[in-house]
Amino acid sequence: MKFDYVVVGGGTCGLLVANRLSEDPNTTVVVIEPGQDARNNPNVTDPANFLVPFNTPIDWAYPTISQPGAANRSLTFHSGKAIGGTSTINGLTYFRSDAAEIDAWEALGNAGWNWETLFPYYKKVERFTRPTTAQVASGAHYEPQYHGEDGDLHVGYRYALSNGSFHGLLVSLGIHTVIDLAGVGENLQEQPNSESLLSLSNNLKVAGATTYSTFGTVEDIFGSNKSVIAASTNESLARYAQLVASASHDGVNATALEQIFRVLYDLLFSKNVAISETITDYNSGNLLSVWWCLIPLSRGSVHLGSAQLIDEPGD
Fold first, then answer.
1. How far is residue 254 CA from its own chain's centroid?
2. Structure-model confidence comparison of residues 298 and 26, the more confident one
3. Residue 299: which of 255, 245, 250 has the closest Cα?
4. Using CA atoms, how far apart are residues 281 and 267, in angstroms rounded to an integer?
5. Which helix (H) or strand (E) holds 137?
């Protein structure tokens, strides 16, 4: 096969060059990339996992030469080996360089390589989400001359509830509504977790980790303080319900939510059901403990981020 252009390397620069060249429908472009397609890899698409891809097949993980400045150690130089290059292992971080940094290129003798020349291309890749009326009223501000709106890189303010209702959010996104159901997207419950990683001393012998989870009750967690916690929680249930109702713009009924909370309270403090799950694992001198809250009283919401079907939720 013959191509007009062959781009070697499918990193951010290579893909951008290929994209620009292929804007001409009469031009054929091929990109050569030794890495895999990681666009559906959750360790790439979720910035919370940005450390996980290190030393995996999408990381070249080059070893450096041992040298005195590194205490005579060979360290790992991480570099992305996938479509998207190092951007796939960089936690989805994006920011513009300072104008002075770009102008320094020209100062070194690269005529035309300055901020004024580059700035239009920064704008070209950007699809800026303007703040809603409610966000502006809360202090959000932006200067439109510094942002682009037709590119592929989504930046800016995420849509949140406006006009005090789910209906208001849909209207702000240009979506026609038939029925206004205020509770849509509200009363979201999730079971949060926390992790602890301990490095064990060399003289500690660990036979292995349990193959089962540990489920703890209120008494297991709080011990002799159970009655104090019970009394404090009982006094706060109505307030908790009202806080959630207010945060949902009254999409959730406070009285109904308090009734649910009191059922949960009875499960926790009278029926002694499990309120937590804990698992442990041991590997190479490290002890990992992961803890989940099974019956949280906190509530959240999930709403649209845009009118596009493939976009992520806004909040």
1. 30
2. 26
3. 245
4. 29
5. helix 133-137
Summarize the confidence of residues 42-48 as an average pLDDT. 85
Q: Choose among 272, 263, 264, 262: nearest CA to 220.
A: 272
The answer to whether residues 269 and 183 touch, using CB atoms and an 8 Å cutoff, is no
Angle (nearest 5°) at CA 31 between 29 and 35: 165
**Euclidean distance between CA atoms 118 and 283, whole angstroms:** 49
Quote the CA–CA distance of 81 and 11 in Å, as a whole number.
8
Tell which residue, 151, 148, 159, has the closest CA to residue 306: 159
**Residue that the structure tokens 């064990």 belong to:** 200
pLDDT per position as a tens digit, 243-288? 988 888 778 899 999 999 999 999 889 888 888 988 887 766 777 7
Give the phi and the psi of residue 200 in degrees, each rounded to 5.
Answer: -90, 150
Is residue 196's pLDDT more than 80? yes
Asked if 66 contacts 47 with a C-beta cutoff of 8 angstroms, the reply is no
Q: Which is higher by pLDDT, 161 or 1? A: 1
- Which pairs with CB-CB distance under 8 Å and at least 24 residues apart come from 235-242? 237/261, 237/262, 237/265, 237/297, 240/297
- Retrieve residue 230's tokens: 């019970």
Cβ neighbourhood burial of 174 (10 Å; 0-12, 13-18, 19+): exposed
Compute the CA torsion angle 34, 36, 37, 41 (nearest 10 deg).
Answer: -150
Q: How many CA atoms lie within 13 A of 7 on its CB side?
A: 20
**Token reading at 134:** 């409610």
- CA dist., res. 6 & res. 22, Å (int): 11
C-alpha 2/C-alpha 5 separation (Å) is: 9
Residue 165 has, within 13 A of its CA and on its CB side, a CA count of 8
End-to-end CA distance of the chain: 47
Joined together, the tokens standing for residue 30 give 């091929």
How buried is residue 84: exposed, middle or buried, by Cβ count under 10 Å (0-12/13-18/19+)? buried
